[in-house]
Amino acid sequence: MTPQRVTLITLGVTDLAAARAFYARLGWQEHAQSQPGVAFFQINGMALALFGGEDLAEDQGRKGATLGTGAITLAQNFATEAEVDAAFAAALAAGATALKAPEKVFWGGYSGYWADPDGHVWEVAMNPFWPLEADGSLHLPE
Hints:
The chain is globular. The relative contact order is 0.18. Helix content is 22%, strand content 31%. A four-stranded mixed sheet has the order 4-7-6-5, with helices on one face. It has three helices and seven strands, in the order βαββαβαβββ. It is α/β, with parallel strands linked by helices and 142 residues long. The longest helix is centred in the middle third of the chain and has 14 residues, at 81-94.
């Protein structure tokens, strides 16, 4: 049986130095395990990695493949609409592209979307049905 978990999310990027700078402007701090060819960020029991897109395709055994973006959404949930608005504004100030400004949504929450400089899509949301732990982690209610 395969465990139901994710331990590392790797984003293929066009320019690793530019991607590192963008996430630094968001206030994210690289982990000491980062290396010249890969940046790691510790996030709530897992890690996010930034890796050159061509290098990632080769590592996947698909040398020369063009990797797409936007087919998945990474999400950050917040406790309040004001926190969502602040996170959205911070992303734009760091150089993100606005895709959809935060707004009340049909399912009863509040959310918006932005894309990082490589087109990776992030959702910022407040879901009144999913309370967050003190550290910001999410445990779906029973």
